[in-house]
Amino acid sequence: MIRSTRAGRALAVAGAVALALTACSSASDDAGADEETTGGGSGEPLRIGTILPVTGSLAQLGPPEIAGVDLAVKEINDAGGLFGADVEVEHTDSSDAENASVATGSAQQLISSGVSAIIGAASSSVSKNIVDDITGAGIVQVSPANTATDLSGYSDFYFRTAPPDTVQGDVLGNLIVSDGASNVGILVFNDSYGTSLRDVVEGVVDEAGGTVVYGTSGEEFDPAETNFATIVADAIASSPDAIAILSFTNQTPSIVRELSAQGWDMSKTYFVDGNLQNFGVEGDIGFPADTLTDAQGTLPGAYPSEEFQGRMLEIDPELKDYSYGPESYDATMLVALAALKGGASDGETIQANMAAVSGADGGTDCTGWEECKALLEDGEDIAYQAVSGIGPFNEANDPSSAFIGIYQFGPENKYTFSRSEEGEVPQG
């Protein structure tokens, strides 16, 4: 189910910078989902780790994601922290699936540090490499950006604040069709992120009476590919009237240059969250002016308000965009609220209360740490109003609903917000 809104939701947050983690956390055997909130309970300090892309093919997502975590931690600590102590956070690198040992090492580092929750990874493929180690250790993992459909319900300890590809793929497919395309080409890499999203888009196009003329199963390209001349030529030869690029940022600039060189009308090109960025007209990823004029892209999450953007910039003045910053903020807030509700900071307590504080069982709407904390301390159930616009967790630990933003490129090869669509996340 999709409904359009040009305004999105009103978003309000507070914010700035994060701190380092030391020592180990201990579990409490007395807390659980059915326990009434203890207010300023006797739990150990909450220690959170992150595994987010500082390097690799999704490195453009690292700064806003890290800033989102740091913003939430700063807000909590400015209000007195949790259980009488500051929330602590340790940041580590996830890199990408081509450098899997980086995330594996980061996961082992954080497990040894005794964190109770880990925010990350951004890449679904990276999460698949580390999720068993993390959740098997009784640590809650909350990804702000995983979208692969086969991660739905993966573990009781795995959550995400980004919707599965069923939502973005539906919006993207309908966008392409509504723009008048009936023969669609898809340049997709052979990665679980790309193929999962491709399958949803293909289903939408087929259902609308169109055809995916290139990029169906068996026509993916290797994630390590660097020469796209033949791939692009084959796609254009299939006579598409739209082309979607489903890849990460390390492949996308080369693909765009090849499409342009071979005469493709770039206004009929579509990007997704894995490669949507402000390319500009200079540098290694820039293109000549007007290269991407009127091309479009989709990005999960409600469009962040100017207030939220301003507070993010207080954390990191160098931010160039805000992709998955709201989702990272929400992930951190939900973890802390779950610990508060359960009265302890161990992973089992957090896991048992995540759905409840998200509003899965109803409760009083609340925004931000101070308002939600006050309600919990008064013994009330809460429904945390997510900055990213997601609905409460469903039984698969996915958001029950989410916004997908639609963006359009201008002459300087930078994108601006056009509108957003809200979709419900199917289960089963």
Describe the secondary-structure layout:
Elements: E1 2-5, E2 47-52, H1 62-78, E3 88-93, H2 100-113, E4 117-120, H3 124-136, E5 140-143, E6 158-160, H4 165-178, E7 183-188, H5 192-207, E8 211-214, H6 229-237, E9 242-246, H7 252-261, E10 269-271, E11 296-300, H8 306-315, H9 325-342, H10 347-358, E12 364-366, H11 368-377, E13 382-384, E14 401-409, E15 415-424
Parallel strand pairs: 2-3, 2-4, 4-5, 5-6, 7-8, 7-9, 9-10, 10-11, 12-13
Antiparallel strand pairs: 1-15, 11-14, 14-15
Helix pairs in contact: 1-8, 1-9, 2-3, 4-5, 9-10, 9-11
Number of domains: 2
Q: How many extended strands?
A: 15
Poorly predicted runs of 5 or more residues = 1-41
Described by strand count, sense and barrel closure, the largest sheet is: 8 strands, mixed
**What share of residues are in beta strands?**
15-25%
Radius of gyration: 21 Å
Largest beta sheet: strand ordering? 1-15-14-11-10-9-7-8
Textual characterization of the structure:
The strands form three sheets. An eight-stranded mixed β-sheet has the order 1-15-14-11-10-9-7-8. A five-stranded parallel β-sheet has the order 3-2-4-5-6, with helices on both faces. The chain has a two-stranded parallel ribbon with strand order 12-13. Residues about 1-40 have low confidence and may be disordered. About 35% of the residues lie in helices and about 20% in strands. Helix 1 packs across helix 8 (about 305-315) and helix 1 runs parallel beside helix 9. It has helices spanning about 60-80, 100-115, 125-135, 165-180, 190-205, 230-235, 250-260, 305-315, 325-340, 345-360, 370-375; strands spanning about 1-5, 45-50, 90-95, 115-120, 140-145, 160, 185-190, 210-215, 240-245, 270, 295-300, 365, 380-385, 400-410, 415-425. It is built from eleven helices and 15 strands. It has two domains: about 1-160 and about 305-395, Response regulator (Rossmann fold, 3-Layer(aba) Sandwich), CATH 3.40.50; about 165-300 and about 405-425, Response regulator (Rossmann fold, 3-Layer(aba) Sandwich), CATH 3.40.50. It is an alpha/beta fold and about 425 residues long. The radius of gyration is 21 Å and the shape is elongated.
